[in-house]
Amino acid sequence: MMNRLRLKAPRGVDILEHKQMSRSARRLAAIILGVVLAASGFRALIRARTYQVFGVLVDRVNTREPVVALTFDDGPNTTTIDGILQVLAESNVRATFFVIGNELETHPEAGRRLVAAGHELGNHSYSHRRMVFTSPAAAQVEIERTDALIRTVGQSGAVVFRPPYGVKFVGLPWYLRQNGRTSVTWDIEPESFSEVA
Ligand SMILES: [Zn+2]
Prior knowledge:
The protein is mainly alpha-helical. The chain has 2 domains: 1-47; 56-193, TIM Barrel. It has 6 helices and 5 strands; from the N terminus they run H-E-E-H-E-H-H-E-H-H-E. It has helices at residues 2-47, 81-90, 101-106, 108-116, 136-152, 171-178, and strands spanning 56-58, 71-75, 96-99, 120-123, 182-184. Helix 2 (81-90) links the parallel strand 2 (71-75) and strand 3 (96-99). The relative contact order is 0.14.
């Protein structure tokens, strides 16, 4: 009788411990799953091209006309500008160039050529850093500094803004909304047609 009890007791303990570990493992798995889902949701939110937390974002304009709004990012690029301006002129096409402030500061003449050719300059921040956790005050510096440079090369009127890498969270959209600024993203990119490249 004593032997049977001794034999059964450790087994009971073993089973109990196993169950506790299993419950802990399930709880841990649920926590990991929650963290992963939250992280992927956050990633989707900051990368969304059709939505930002505050203010106006345009990713496409509905029209019956067979047209596209052509945009270029990260310039002005003195290496490619001659070829791009030539092709656009030959086709009588106007485009929007989302320029980086510090690039425009370095190459103002390239910016002047774009404006003189009838193209629009958009604001793509001064430093082109990811502006996910940027405060409204820091966003102001990035945006206003670049706006001033855009004005000096001859553009007038409203200046649209495109977030570097298309990412934003709270501080940047807040500043944009408070200042009546429009974010412009995109819905087609060269990688959308990989079979053509
Ligand atoms: Zn960019």
